[in-house]
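ok so i was messing around last nite and threw this chain in just to see what happens. nothing serious, just curious
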Amino acid sequence: MSEQIHAIAWAQFRTMRNHLPRTSVGTVLLWFLSLLWYGMYAGLAVGIAILLPQLPVDALRKWLPIGFLAIFLFWQIIPLFTLSTGWSLQLNKLQIYPVSNSALFGIEVLLRLTTAPEMILVLGGAIVGLERRPDTSWLSAIFVFLYIPLNLFLSLAIREFILHSFERNRFRELFAILLISIGVLPQLFLRTSLGQRSKPFFLALSQNAAAPWHEVAQLSSSAFSGADLILLLTWIGAVYVLARRQFDKALVQDEAFRNTSTIPRTSPEENRKFRATREVLSLPTRLFRDPLAALLEKEFQSLVRMPRFRVIFGMACFFSIIVFLPISLRSPGGLAFVSDNFLPLVTLYGLLLLSDVLLLNIFGFDRQAAQIYFVTPVAFKTVLRAKNITALAFIFLQAITVLIIAAVMRLGITLLNVANALAASAVVSVFFLSAGNLISISMPRAIDAKQTFRKQAGGKMQLWFALCSVGMLVLMGFAFLARWALQSNWALLGVLLVEFLVGVIVYHVASESAVERGMRDRERILETLSRGSAPIGLGL
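result:
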């Protein structure tokens, strides 16, 4: 098993070494931010190691279960908020090799350490602090260490359950929106009275004698108890069985999927059901002339069939409202700015979510099929225009959907807010299209449409996404600053109009440059889009 783990780790290292840039601004910035982030938790671990020896026994027994419960919730729930579960195996690439299922399971469990490495640092600080206390046993470190495999097994079980849920096509989008909506819970606890009302519940939960965090706290801070140890080992055994069953089920399903070669047939009822949808998707053929019309029809019909795009579009329409709704509540802690500009903020946040698949990487879903754009007698400028028109159509549809939902929920929608939202969306869209055309040519990357949540952007691409987000804030900041200075909403609309006209000029120049560079670097673009994934990937 050790040789198999070494072989997979070596293959992953060579893949990263060959594909990732050696030195770049994005890589350096990513490493710097990572160092800053984990340094913060390392400082927290040092603080815990210093504080624990100074706590009285009663305070230690009260707060230690709360701390272990917080670690448990961070390890299992925070990855759902950030839509990332760390590194994971690409089973479809590894099952063809003579690697045992036990070895794959062991590697996957070890990779769960990347789900919440911050908590490893915090637990390390807790171990050092408990060992420094004169009234605790030297076995405290072992009992705290047992908390790690429990969280690893449970994290793997949750991940495999989520992936299995996304295999069901009819429920994938609904389950994704439900899962992502969990991310609004922290804001509900902070912005409403729900946090104060639920505090006694969490305190009681942390002191539950049958909970694993309570058992770890008791074993590490009190006299040894065989009953507590047996209960903790029972918890570990239970989550191990659950994780192994979920993992074995994933192996069987992946093998069954690869062996399936038949294409499901649709019934006449289903054909009639989707006839109206097909009529809408073929609308470009009535509004435009070929070859632009054919390209537009291809873009519309392919995007609506892609699970990743459908989930992200649903997030842009619904999750954006869920995120800002608690902040806009007019309570003593509410933000008046968010309440007064709810619709523009929600629309722009949804546009930001869509930008990753519609604006900043327009050839990602095409992958190897992008070569058709360079071998057919169609101008590459027409291809870019079709991609951009498709993006604008879905952005407009997202804005209208958000407007309808906000109106149904009676969120104080006014004609002024609608005008501000549409104008802001138009300005940001034209600048994002300008940047996206250039980024898509200079840094193309393939996107797996079936991987709903897996992060498929490198450090350099994440840097550009952050820069585009900052640019959006600057554009909107000038407009809102003008409204504040002149005390007139017409000033905001006037600044947005000027920015839009400037954006149109920038778009024209950027598009011409993207066409010229795309034709010059077409071999590199096709090679990058045809590149496969590594044996270990990042995300769900």
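not much to say yet. Residues 25 and 487 are 41 Å apart (CA to CA).
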